[in-house]
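Tokens as discussed.
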């Protein structure tokens, strides 16, 4: 159960961040063209309901006077025509017809921010505490950082648009406050969400955990990015399109890279997942298997592992953590339910890689996370790594002490793996992560480590490896570990050892710069606010600033 995400971040499903890396993600899968098959033989009497590529009197390839605009400014009188034609274009690519009208509004960023404050219900104190503990467990937001604020900051300045299934409304956000501009590519993406909702009901999916959320979005956003990429290619080669100016911000915003990598996962790996379904047994010029993709909405991926590796059945293992806490501790509850989560494989990758993008040491180095494409460009984000590829399930439960505060909180986090070797690989990565954050071994307590109060992630950590399981217990102090979990921090000699095998991002970049076979972006000047390692990640930031939808 993850109530904070349901109310604040759960909108990532339909009020989703999109195309943070359309440029990069597009390089990670082939740009596919399905031609104009559905509308080559145009009926004499077309109808909006029954004719693919025709909506309210507009065909997909009609030209409009607003196409001549240099800045994408569309008047209220012209907006209906642009919307109808864009709907027809989405139909042409996707092969489905809209069943109902879709309301579209174009607003300035100032208007959006004012509305967004009113639209999103503030999480209550219980939800805030749970989210703070959850992100602290993932080393994504330290004790001094407001977790909800980190989520909000990721969206505030970069949302390009969203679709709201409760109101069936699309809002396109323009950075031009004087004359709002319409980005037809963003409109096409959000219209695809409306089309999905009309045919498959986007509100029907279980998304109580981080992993469920990202897995379902792998299909939903993968479909949307696939269509959007095709739409954009046609705007470049075939269609006249309404697009705003392409000026980018002088300086990209600061990024919480852990949240960025977690949230962006469906948009990076989702299109490849969708492409694998569309390709199927396709031979040569055979049509894509849209029926197979439509059927997948009845049986969506069960985990991010299935999206990372299309075709594999990776149903998460059921985990029921036993409460072994003393009377001084209790499982935290939100709205009467235990505050727990399953973060999944993609988020574990984000946990192991985020520090490198911030310019520090990381378990998964920048070069491993952002491998070179065939022509030296960044090929996309790599979410398939040895540390995490044997994930079989996890459950993280938040605990609170008598004070019921973030400072007086802890967690028990059990991870399950396909084999003992897979568990050992994750364990190695986690011990490296503790070492990166200056953990020290605790004498007289087996496999117990402590991070002092002067760092961002203070507390005591007990790590237990049992065959295919790795469990982490974290409490404010060593003495409280056994209060939170009776089996934690027993007396005895260590079986585990901190071993600094982490990759130093700065050193990695320096080494890469000397290697002529590596990407030349490693020698780029640092971007203010992003640390010395961000040369490799600069393209990610540029794409984020260029176009994001929610």
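Sequence:
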């Amino acid at each position: 159960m993850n109530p904070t995400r349901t109310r604040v971040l759960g909108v990532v499903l339909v009020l989703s961040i999109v195309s943070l890396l359309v440029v990069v993600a597009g390089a990670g899968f082939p740009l596919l063209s399905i031609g104009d098959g559905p509308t080559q033989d145009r009926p004499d009497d077309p109808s909006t309901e029954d004719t693919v590529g025709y909506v309210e009197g507009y065909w997909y390839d009609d030209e409009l006077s607003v196409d001549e605009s240099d800045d994408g400014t569309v008047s209220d009188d012209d907006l209906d025509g642009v919307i109808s034609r864009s709907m027809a274009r989405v139909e042409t690519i996707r092969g489905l017809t809209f069943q109902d009208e879709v309301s579209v509004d174009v607003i300035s960023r100032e208007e959006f921010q004012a509305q967004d404050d009113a639209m999103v219900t503030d999480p209550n104190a219980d939800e805030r505490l749970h989210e703070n503990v959850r992100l602290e467990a993932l080393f994504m937001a330290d004790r001094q950082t407001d977790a909800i604020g980190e989520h909000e900051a990721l969206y505030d300045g970069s949302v390009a648009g969203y679709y709201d299934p409760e109101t069936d409304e699309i809002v396109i956000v323009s950075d031009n406050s004087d004359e709002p501009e319409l980005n037809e590519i963003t409109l096409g993406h959000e219209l695809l969400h409306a089309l999905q909702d009309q045919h498959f009901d986007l509100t029907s999916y279980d998304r109580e955990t981080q992993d469920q959320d990202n897995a379902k979005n792998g299909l939903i956003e993968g479909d949307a990015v696939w269509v959007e990429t095709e739409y954009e290619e046609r705007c470049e080669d075939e269609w006249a399109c309404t697009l705003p100016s392409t000026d980018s911000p002088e300086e990209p915003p600061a990024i919480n890279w852990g949240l960025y990598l977690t949230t962006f996962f469906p948009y990076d790996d989702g299109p490849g997942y969708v492409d694998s379904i569309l390709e199927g047994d396709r031979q040569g010029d055979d049509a894509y298997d849209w029926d197979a993709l439509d059927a997948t909405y009845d049986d969506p991926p069960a985990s991010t592992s299935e999206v990372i590796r299309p075709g594999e059945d990776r149903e998460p293992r059921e985990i029921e953590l036993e409460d072994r806490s003393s009377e001084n501790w209790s499982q935290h509850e939100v709205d009467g339910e235990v505050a727990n989560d399953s973060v999944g494989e993609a988020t574990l990758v984000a946990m192991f890689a985020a520090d490198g993008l911030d310019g520090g040491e990381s378990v998964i180095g920048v070069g491993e996370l952002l491998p070179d494409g065939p022509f030296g460009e960044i090929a996309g984000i790599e979410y398939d790594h040895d540390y995490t590829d044997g994930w079989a399930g996890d459950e993280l439960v938040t605990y609170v002490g008598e004070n019921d505060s973030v400072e007086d909180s802890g967690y028990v986090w059990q991870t399950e793996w396909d084999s003992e070797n897979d568990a050992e690989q994750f364990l190695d990565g986690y011990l490296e992560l503790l070492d990166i954050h200056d953990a020290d071994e605790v004498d007289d307590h087996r496999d117990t480590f402590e991070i002092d109060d002067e760092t961002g992630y203070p507390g005591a950590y007990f790590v237990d490896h049992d065959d295919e399981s790795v469990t982490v217990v974290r409490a404010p102090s060593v003495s409280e570990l056994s209060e939170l979990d009776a089996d934690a921090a027993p007396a005895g000699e260590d079986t585990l050892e901190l071993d600094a095998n982490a990759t130093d991002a700065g050193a990695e970049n320096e080494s890469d710069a000397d290697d002529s076979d590596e990407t030349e972006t490693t020698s780029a000047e640092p971007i203010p606010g992003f640390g010395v390692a961000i040369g490799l990640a600069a393209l990610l930031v540029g794409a984020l600033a260029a176009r994001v939808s929610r």
